[in-house]
């Protein structure tokens, strides 16, 4: 019995030591895993900070580019409006000039026509014909 009890105690001690060894091994592994995960978290936080900084820079650059583009577009629209006004002014001046030239030419033709009519009336009258009868 005593030998059996001794064996039982020895078995308990062996089990205790084996469980203790397994516990320490697991604890060491978990500690190493926690450290590794903490390092990974730290690295990811650094990466996140860098990414956020880059994003902020990109946003400010994009905003600046948009502002520059908007300024260029506004400038081009202003130039286009000015060109439109200038061309409209030139067109009106040209049309007014053409209208004046047409009026002057028309007046010249009317004067010449009246002179010719008078001349032919006189010629008809010299031949004894009345222009209204014809």
UniProtKB/TrEMBL annotation:
The keyword Thylakoid does not apply. Component of the nexin-dynein regulatory complex (N-DRC), a key regulator of ciliary/flagellar motility which maintains the alignment and integrity of the distal axoneme and regulates microtubule sliding in motile axonemes. This is Dynein regulatory complex protein 12. InterPro entries: DRC12-like (IPR033585). Residues 20-93 form a coiled coil. The lineage of its organism: Eukaryota, Metazoa, Chordata, Craniata, Vertebrata. Belongs to the DRC12 family. It is found in: Cytoplasm, Cytoskeleton, Flagellum axoneme. The keyword Coiled coil applies. It comes from Haplochromis burtoni (Burton's mouthbrooder). Keywords: Cell projection, Cilium, Coiled coil, Cytoplasm, Cytoskeleton, Flagellum. Component of the nexin-dynein regulatory complex (N-DRC).
